TrEMBL record:
The protein, known as: Uncharacterized protein
Length: 153
């Protein structure tokens, strides 16, 4: 799981009001080279929670991001290279994500976070029958096989 993904995830457990950022429990980190694209990084920068990225990077053994960042730093190739490495090349291969409010562990196996909730953790809305998945859950599940196979080599 890339830190780009981590920066977009939060805990949606029933009753949780502050499910971001998820803490990282590291078992195995790998680095996967990705083509450097400064335009992509400049586009993504405003969408990234910088403090969460810095904390996650340091947890995964990469201390080279500055404590704070602003748009003016996007003109620095050195900054962009560090941002790129942290955001796209560091992968949590094995470990867990932890809800900051409840401590609930979401396992990460082969780089794929399992964010599925237990039945008692789900906010019930509408007249959906027990055990039936929501449209969002079905959509996410439909994406998992594609994501899973992209990691096989």
């Amino acid at each position: 799981m890339r830190l780009l993904t981590h920066n977009m995830l939060s805990s949606n457990i029933k009753g949780v009001t502050n499910g971001f950022p998820l803490r990282i429990e590291v078992q195995k980190v790998i680095e996967k080279p990705v083509d450097f694209n400064p335009d992509f990084l400049r586009h993504m920068f405003p969408m990234i929670d910088w403090n969460a990225l810095v904390e996650a990077s340091r947890t995964m053994g990469y201390p080279d991001l500055p404590d704070s960042a602003d748009a003016a730093m996007l003109d620095s190739d050195d900054f962009l290279q560090r941002f790129h490495h942290s955001l796209l090349e560091l992968h949590l291969e094995e470990g867990a994500l932890l809800c900051p409010e409840t401590g609930r562990r979401f396992p990460v196996t082969k780089g794929i976070p399992n964010m599925l909730l237990h039945e008692d953790e789900v906010e019930v809305s509408g007249a959906r029958a027990p055990g039936k998945l929501s449209g969002i859950a079905l959509f996410v599940l439909s994406l998992l096989p594609l994501h899973f196979f992209s990691h096989l080599q």
